[in-house]
Amino acid sequence: MELFTWKMVSDPIYGFVYFNREIEEQIINSSLLQRLRYIMQLQTAHLVYPGAVHTRFQHSLGVMHLSGLVAEDLTWKLVSIYGREALEDYSPATLIEASRLAGLLHDVGHAAFGHSFEHSVLWRRTMPSELANHERIGLKLVELVLEDALIKLEEKYGLNGLTDVLKKLLKDNHDDSPLIRMYRWVIKDGLYPTDIVDFLRRDSYYAGTSEYGYISHERLYRNTYPLIEGGGFKPVLDRTGLGEFKQYMIAKTSMYEHVYYHSVCRAFDKILDTLLERLDEEYGLVERVLAISKGRIEDFLELTDVYVYSILLGKALREESETGRLARLMLIERKPEWRRVGGDYVLNGYRGPRFISEILKLIFNREWRSKVVSALTEELSRKLSGIGVTEEDVWVDVLDVSPVPKTLLYPGGENNTPGVVVYTGKILGRRIVVGQEINLLEGELPLAVIFRAYVKRGKYRVEAESIASKTIGDVLESLLRINMDEYRRSIEEAYKSATGIDYSRFKLTM
């Protein structure tokens, strides 16, 4: 944008990330952004993948960069297809800069250990609505720390409405105009938002698992067109980009299954869950969040991984308390008290509608999910009682793997119809023609629920492996009314139908 002068920093994902001196450099140098240097992007994953020590600061710069590219592409598509009036009363520079700033600021509400803090501290309490999650906390911090300065900057550089658009993009409001929803789609409300695209590429790079997180982001957004009709907005993916979208879904599924939900990472997360609960009692973690409502933010801003790790390391080295013991297990001995037993049982949507139904029920119905976990825990402890295992020695972990954002999958919100739809089509001149509407729940979505069993490390015996695997399968197939024998028979019948055909003349290696 001609309004600004630009600086750059090296980045392993994009080569260089550019930011403007006039506005973005001031935001980057604020306490809200600089504290993100001290919060790791992947909580405890570095204990399993030593390279995964990158930070939310790096990720925020990446999302800013990517959001700018996508927003600029979207803006000029809107102008070329619908004319300048499609931008309402905003200038292209305002919309693009607001998108860049929203990408930069989207994670400033994270506390120490990111999402683990939300699960272990915030969501165990009834928090005020404005502080219920990191996104809402972030918006409140932006209002308290940056809003006045941003209003002055938008006036200085003629970016009318910049602060207002930025706040709307950071909110989770579905009542905004199609234009605002369009730009929020870029960062967080779309099937392939810049937030997710960046963290998949960045996390896979630093974890050393690039084979899982590869995405050609440019091909995705270049092949997406904004369709405005009936007062609403639909992103239409050119059918030539459908293959890249499927690759994106595979990348997200693979990263969750193999990195974010790695069995040892989950065992460390369970220790961290207990530690954060104990630290809340001792250091008033919730009170630090609640103080934001009263305009006191310093105690919250202090809550970084560096700060909490310093406390935990001190306890690990000096205390014989239970907190000290758990801290030693995580930080020094690196031996979680829970050890996985048996293989993962993956309930995968590829197996058909019966499986999709049970997967969605497990994701949506927390009470039903708890009943399934209780049944598994009870039966596993009974089958493993011969080696001294009791119910207290068993932990059943249930993990959702969704290649699309959960906000789009859950009932409610902007559209309560069952299904996640991808609109595909072509652009002919200045006209977008929708072709196929693909409901991803009808076969394209690699949705899954993973069941995994752990026992206390001291109770682990190698003979428990086969017992646990069989028990999990038997209980789930009975409880969820899944007939795997029927599934296997259908495969056998397909092979029987080919009996007598000579396949040796075909090139089977193709």
TrEMBL record:
PROSITE patterns: HD
Pfam families referenced in this protein's UniProt entry, alphabetically: HD (PF01966)
InterPro entries listed in its UniProt record: dGTPase-like, HD/PDEase_dom, HD_domain
CDD domains tied to this protein: HDc (cd00077)
Domain of life from the UniProt record: Archaea
Keyword set, alphabetical order: Hydrolase
GO molecular function: dGTPase activity
GO biological process: dGTP catabolic process
Entry protein name: Metal dependent phosphohydrolase
Native source organism of the sequence: Desulfurococcus amylolyticus DSM 16532
Lineage of origin: Archaea, Thermoproteota, Thermoprotei, Desulfurococcales, Desulfurococcaceae
